Amino acid sequence: MIKRLFILGFTLCFATLMSAQDNLSALMPMPNNIVSGKGTYLTLSNRTNIVCADKTLSFAASELHRILHERMNLNVSVTGRSTGKGSILLMLDSSLKGMEHYRLKVGSEGITIAGRSAAAVLYGVMTFDQLLMGDNYHSSHCQIASVSIDDSPRFARRELMLDPARHFLPIKDVKFYIDQMVKYKFNVLQLHLTDDQGWRIEIKGREKLTETGPFYTQAELKELVDYAAERAVEIVPELDIPGHTVAFLHAYPELGCTSNDTVPKVVGTTTNMMVCASVLEVYTVYKDIITQVAALFPSPYIHLGGDEAAVSKNWALCDRCKMTMKMNGFTKPEQLMILFFDKMLKYVREAGKTAILWCELDNIYPPANDYLFPYPKDVQLVSWRNGLTPTTISLTRKHGNQVLLAPGEYAYFDYPQLKGDLPEFNNWGMPVTTLRKSYEFDPGYGLPETEQAHIVGVMGTLWGEAIVDINRACYMTFPRAFALSEAGWTEMKNRSWKSFKARIYPNLTELMKKGVSVRAPFEIAGVGE
Ligand SMILES: [Zn+2]
């Protein structure tokens, strides 16, 4: 193992030496507007001040302080008032257009990082860090090249998803993951909190839900939400219904369908069970759960799953559900989804939130011509099944739903990165998603602007069946998340595989130095394109 790590490290260092090192060589994602200076350098020293008058920018200021210490061995002061030439000014600027819009200017007079919001200023600081990282030589001499960057993202929502339901991830590991997300301007972490393999969120008064395994207390989640918010990351909770509910049914066996009420519900083993659509108590319990979860997470969204519901093995065989179908004049058991989500979505609305669902079409392979059931307009849908995203973009536009893109073929980071690579277990014959493939993702699919206006962003998913811990999660995430960060942030005209390939290495080396597991993409080294 030690030998293997050494070889990886050597490969990375070698590749780093081979690529040109300048202030633009480690930018990730690539900013949308860069004007390089005329080869002049600003020299910083311990007399340099970080000037930051706004309390909401104190985290950005402390990050900047850390960066100057790590990259230049400086120990500068943070002050509220300008002390003249050569200082680094952090400020809010309400004249900037988007909420994440920032401007970063390095000139002979000093450095200014201005943003529309605290998040935007923090992104300016992250870009500043990458300028220093790329130009290692000058940074070690406390010099920084003049440059002017005016940057804002292509998409508002740039998400990653972790699945602690399948393999639990302690809070400290989720925080570690958030630390890495912010470097690449990801602003949403979705947590898949419930599934067949576990129920990971404390629900007050319903302690039996969490009896079968580790879980997050509400106090821990509150702390996590605050930690994430400081780093401009919003946490979206997911409670998967009506399928993926074995852990729920283990606690409430009477809330399944009559067809499976004698079947044992073994958490982690039993699959394909659903909560019954026709028992009033299902709705009473979930109303309580949704209300508690809504109060816990400040995000305007709650994800309710809605995917892979084995209707034919549950609702279609259930005496109560058959009766409900008859009473409503339904001809197909899938139509019970209308009734089921009619109630569940009402609880989400009453809690002041917007629901997200995984988009299911009337077939899982093309041609899939329409929604599985008529999703209400106020539901945000996620496109995920391999090959169906162009259809989903077109259907969501037609039906008036917002859509978030997590196409399996580009953004499923639980899939292997190369044939024969990890995961070595629970691999159900997953397709391979190479780094190159991830990079080819254009969330707009080349469509005219008007036809992509309802696309809110991108999400990389790490389904947890084969992801035992945070090291594995990070190994599967990086470097493919670099590609996704650029898909979400950078306009297509500013993207290129050749440029991206060179910018990977300093960032991978940096992550390794911080103890983050990464995969070295040896297959692209030396391939001229
Ligand atoms: Zn039923």
CATH architecture descriptor name of the largest domain: Alpha-Beta Barrel
Low-confidence stretches: 1-18
The total count of helices amounts to 16
Text of the CATH class of the largest domain: Alpha Beta
Small ligands present? zinc ion
CATH superfamily of the largest domain: Glycosidases
**Rg, nearest Å:** 24 Å
Q: How many strands?
A: 16
Tally the structural domains.
2
Strand order of the largest sheet: 8-9-11-12-13-14-15-16
Strand content: 15-25%
The CATH topology of the largest domain comes to: TIM Barrel
Helix share bin: 25-40%
Give me the secondary-structure category. Answer: alpha/beta
The N- to C-terminal Cα distance equals 32 Å
Gross morphology: elongated
Largest sheet entry: 8 strands, parallel, barrel
Describe what is shown at a glance.
With 529 residues, the chain is an alpha/beta fold. It contains 16 helices and 16 strands. Helices cover 35% and strands 17% of the residues.
